[in-house]
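Duplicate of #3305? Posting structure anyway:
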């Protein structure tokens, strides 16, 4: 019956509507018990469960890390414990990460049945030169040829003559593989961090580790294998030892994958939504869990826009609750590359919820001090911040003196000597003096680039337990302790920066 329902779904253009129609007709829909969650988000969580796959989790299995060094040590521990599969997804793995590569190599030698799966971005991982990231992975391919599976996603946005003209590094502006998933066996860690030294030492991000979660781990693993079906595969040339990039789909050209990718991602989500809603799910486990997790895909170039839909649903829900509660919701938002898309900016400015934003200061921007045009990127974000705050004032939403008051919009900037800032996500609290009941985390920077160019995987997590809510509050406080009042209004933006942002603003 479930297979028949799924096949019927896949014949329809509007996957989710078709899914709900045939699934309701089959009498198999499972209604989630939401009484354990804060009543102010009951309707939102219930609605989201009809749109997105969901995974019940016990709060004791959710671990929030706060430091890059903790992230790295946890990553190494996950690798060392692996017995069946290691699956890692990142923009790239740094050329100098010998300890990480050695840990993977040792794990494979010690476990003959272990397989390693890597999903990385093609353009970022194949930058030319002796320190090209892909070269660091060659020993793994040579030593464990049949058990190392490396997939490189290449955005089809840049193709034809343009692809030959745009130089390396700049070609990443047309979209990248951006999902950050770090898992082994039944453990999975979700972050926004990539795999190189800075992210292990002095580049601040967010890190959530879920232990003993076979269903969630299987979802993440299956997602990566799905994307591998429209990615390049990497092998080591036995004669030269150099990497070989092979496109294995003979029916689709690498720069014409839009239709295939849209279909594959939509059907993947539909399949997992069906599984989430099925009565075959363990009711006992669901009722014993105090956390619900919803994976959210965003791949604008493939017409997959779940993140945009989810955030629209959230702000619509907040608006519907305004006249029914005594206290005002407060949204916390952060991005290392703060440049909200027009849709997200409108959601915030048209809402009455308080919104406290943390962005990277120019010195904490990862491109600060870079040579050439990339050195202008921090200044470009200052321009985007200035435009946002001007729009907030025009909408009468800017907080007086730009202070956090729980009612209006405030913007602060994160700055710590010798560190850069890469954290991103959203927290929702019932009021200014209560800890979060919901958070969005993962790879999205919540900007135009994430919405339209990059391929992202993020998660919405709702919780009812005081312990996990307090940990989320501590996570926010850990970021806020390095946040100072925004000073972007005092900074001068040069004319050439304004011109460049006018040309490529959507790529920032």
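Output from current build:
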């Amino acid at each position: 019956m479930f297979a028949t329902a799924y096949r019927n779904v896949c014949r329809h253009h509007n996957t989710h509507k078709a899914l709900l129609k045939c699934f309701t007709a089959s009498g198999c829909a499972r209604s989630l018990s939401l009484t354990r969650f804060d009543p102010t988000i009951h309707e939102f969580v219930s609605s989201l469960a009809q749109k997105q796959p969901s995974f019940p989790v016990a709060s004791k299995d959710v671990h929030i890390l706060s430091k890059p060094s903790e992230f790295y040590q946890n990553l190494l521990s996950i690798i060392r414990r692996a017995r069946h599969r290691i699956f890692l997804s990142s923009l790239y793995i740094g050329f100098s990460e010998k300890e990480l590569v050695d840990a993977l190599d040792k794990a494979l030698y010690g476990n003959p049945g272990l397989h390693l799966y890597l999903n990385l971005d093609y353009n970022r991982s194949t930058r030319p030169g002796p320190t090209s990231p892909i070269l660091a992975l060659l020993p793994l391919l040579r030593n464990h040829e049949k058990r190392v599976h490396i997939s490189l996603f290449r955005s089809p946005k840049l193709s034809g003559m343009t692809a030959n003209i745009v130089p390396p590094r700049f070609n990443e502006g047309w979209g990248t593989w951006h999902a950050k998933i770090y898992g082994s066996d039944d453990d999975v860690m979700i972050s926004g961090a990539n795999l190189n030294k800075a992210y292990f030492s002095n580049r601040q991000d967010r890190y959530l580790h879920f232990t003993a979660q076979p269903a969630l781990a299987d979802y993440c693993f299956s997602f990566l294998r799905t994307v591998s079906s429209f990615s390049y595969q990497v092998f080591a040339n036995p004669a030269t030892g150099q990497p070989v990039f092979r496109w294995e789909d003979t029916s689709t050209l690498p720069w014409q994958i839009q239709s295939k990718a849209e279909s594959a991602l939509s059907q993947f989500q539909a399949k997992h939504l069906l599984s989430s809603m099925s009565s075959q799910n363990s009711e006992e486990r669901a009722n014993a869990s105090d956390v619900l997790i919803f994976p959210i895909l965003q791949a604008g170039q493939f017409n997959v826009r779940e993140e945009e839909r989810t955030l629209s649903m959230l702000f619509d829900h907040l608006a519907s609750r305004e006249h029914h509660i005594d206290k005002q919701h407060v949204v916390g938002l952060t991005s290392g590359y703060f440049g909200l898309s027009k849709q997200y900016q409108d959601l915030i400015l048209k809402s009455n919820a308080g919104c406290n934003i943390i962005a990277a200061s120019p010195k904490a921007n990862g491109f600060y001090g870079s040579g050439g045009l990339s050195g202008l990127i921090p200044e470009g974000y200052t321009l985007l911040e200035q435009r946002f705050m001007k729009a907030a004032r025009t909408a009468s939403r800017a907080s007086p003196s730009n202070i956090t008051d729980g009612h209006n919009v405030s913007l602060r900037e994160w700055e710590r000597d010798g560190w850069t800032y890469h954290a991103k996500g959203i927290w929702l609290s019932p009021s200014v003096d209560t800890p979060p009941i919901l958070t969005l985390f993962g790879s999205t920077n919540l900007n135009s680039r994430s919405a339209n160019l990059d391929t992202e995987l993020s998660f919405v997590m709702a919780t009812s337990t005081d312990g996990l809510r307090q940990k989320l509050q501590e996570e926010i406080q850990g970021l806020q302790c390095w946040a100072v009042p925004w000073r972007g209004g005092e900074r001068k933006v040069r004319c050439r920066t304004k011109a460049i942002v006018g040309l490529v603003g959507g790529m920032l």
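Confirmed duplicate; merging threads. The radius of gyration is 22 Å. The chain is about 35% helix and 20% strand.
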